[in-house]
Design a protein that fits this description.
With 100 residues, the chain is mainly α. It contains three helices and no strands. It has one domain: Up-down Bundle (Methane Monooxygenase Hydroxylase, Chain G, domain 1). It starts with a helix and ends with a helix.
Amino acid sequence: MANNKSSKKRIQIAERNRLHNRTYKSAVRTLMKRCFTACSAYTQEPGDSAKAAVQATLNAAFSKIDKAVKVGVIHRNTGAHQKSRLSAAVKQAVEPAAKA
């Protein structure tokens, strides 16, 4: 347990930062899941509205990942890895439909 004033303050700051970081991480995970879900929905029933939904969810996820990296919640390599996964999923969902 903390003995002096500065260590008690550091505990409070660490807890505040933990809660702030948790909201960012949760939002990133949620937006990634939405993008993957939109991709799977597009592969089952392709259409212009489904393609627009995929693009919208991809843009939202990229934006949130970039913001989390900028703030320092996640490492930049982690952010790049997540964006790469999303791009690959979207490309796999959209490209075969374009070729057919």
